[in-house]
Amino acid sequence: MGLIKQLKTKYRTLAIVGMAKNAGKTTALNSLLEEAFDEGLTLAVTSTGRDGESTDVVSGGDKPKVYLFTDTIVSVPEKLYDLAETGLEILQRTEYRTAVGNVLICRVADSGYVQIAGPGSVREHQKLCEDMLDYGVDMVLIDGAIDRKSIAAPETSDAIILATGAVISRSLKVVVEETVHIVSLYQSPTLEDEEAIAALAKERREGFCLALIDDENQLDVMPVRTSLGAGALLDEAIGEHTKYVYIDGALTESVIAGIHPKKFQTTTFVLPDPTRIFIGATKWQQLLKKGFRIRVLRNIKVAAVTVNPFSPSGYAFDPAGLKQSIEEALDGIPVFDVRMGGFESYE
Amino acid sequence: MMSHQNTTATSQVDITRVKPYGDTLNDGMVQMSFTLPVPAGEEAAEAARILAKKMGLDEPSVVYQRDLGIGYSYFIVYGKCQHTVDYSSIKVTKVEGDVMDRLECEKFIEENIKRTVTMVGASTGTDAHTVGIDAIMNMKGFNGHFGLERYQGINAINMGSQVPNEELIARAIEEKADAILVSQTVTQKDVHIANLTNMVELCEAEGVRDKILLLCGGPRISHELAQELGFDAGFGTDSYAENVASYVLTELVERKRV
Description:
The structure holds two protein chains of two kinds. Chain A is α/β, with parallel strands linked by helices. Helix content of chain A is 27%, strand content 24%. Chain A has helices at 3-10, 25-38, 78-81, 122-133, 172-186, 194-204, 231-237, 253-256, 281-289, 319-329; strands at 13-18, 43-47, 50-51, 67-68, 73-77, 88-98, 101-108, 112-113, 116-117, 139-143, 159-165, 210-214, 219-221, 242-247, 268-271, 294-296, 302-308, 335-336. The longest helix of chain A is centred in the middle third of the chain and has 15 residues, at 172-186. Chain A is globular. Chain B has seven helices and eight strands. In chain B, the strands form two sheets. Chain B has a five-stranded parallel sheet, sandwiched between helices. In chain B, strands 1-3-2 form a three-stranded antiparallel sheet, with helices on one face.
């Protein structure tokens, strides 16, 4: 049984997220589309950037086009509608505005190449997925853009496929390290403390970005509009009874830089989901060694990882070697080299 | 067209086969300049000529060369381009909507928005060039077009250059900004791409992506690139404050954020 059929039984929306540009997102998308067609599934497809144009807007190089089969549901902004190389039946004109016109939801009337793009914000993508599911498709695929990962957030995607490859670095070791970093962030442990969750849920309705929870589960909302740059303030606020620091925002180095590392021993940082973490692999390892701990309200299911052994800069890894190295580093997550046999033969 | 090739110069432009103009229509003349990592001299000039030939230029000639020191030299080469472009088949996506001038923008704010519109801008990341953001935001503007600071009803905050993305977002949140303007002048090795996507991702994480309009601008920025990067709009060269203001004001009304 192919991967897509397995995924379909578990997930309604699946995002393809790239570690970098040219990591192989569109190739993975095309392979999934083909497999879905072979299995007789009907899919909906959208993109956080733009897909299917033959020339890359960043590098000017060639880019794989996207071939959609008859009856696929697809999001196409008004200005890209004319560029489709096949017939599209417009089902709905949405209110989602993009740089290239409002998003149309279309049905592919005849198999062919289509340029795909979706709304700008993740929240609108979430709504678009719901709209598309209403047309009775088996699953929605969201193709990510460049290295944008916010679409992986569990509110939008039930699971993700992570595309990684040689483009990240000339060193195989670095490619593996960076990939493992993202996968392990996405699989961060969830917060299991029921009382703390309840305290948060009560206050979350009000909307705030930074709060402390003490060992008696009392919530203290901090009077700031953003956690960005709040490091020094946090250091002052975290006391010996502070059990959790909850951040409904981005976790960057500036947020924790001002906090004394000793406080990492007694306080755990809590985030809504792992897409909020903006700290690199090396720095993250250093933090963990100092005792830094993270919990998330919801984590991200990594359904599969795809590897692309070729870099557009002209170097390549041994395909089997790259796949094996990633497989060994990611215990239990299926790894595919899509060009070398697609998602077939997945048990 | 071939029949009167050697008679007089063609005066009728065939828009399905456009090629460069030098002295006469369709002569294909191109001038280009580049640097080679070899010392100036006859060998270097020949190298430049061969290179131009490989680029598809007919009858390339090196009209200027100059030694740049440390074993580099600079060339200006003329040649005839052999390729044509079908102009009639070109489709480019542009920023939608009419461009209002400053006074029309001010009137639009007064009539349709009825409050001060705040825009925070900066040249972000490692980029030290303020030329782009200053041209759009500073009072005196650029090329006879006043900047956003001059607009009644617009609170324009220019944070300058080398501003980290998170500082720009933090300021925009503090000021309850309607739009963030990001300028990227330096684009070597595509550094602007990762910096711009990081901006979008941080806005998503901070929960402000659908509250604040995200605009980017710079010599290598287009509307299509903006879509790929996740921005609401992108402005290339030949954009002025009124282009940015018109877009922001119209979108605020369209998106019911007045």
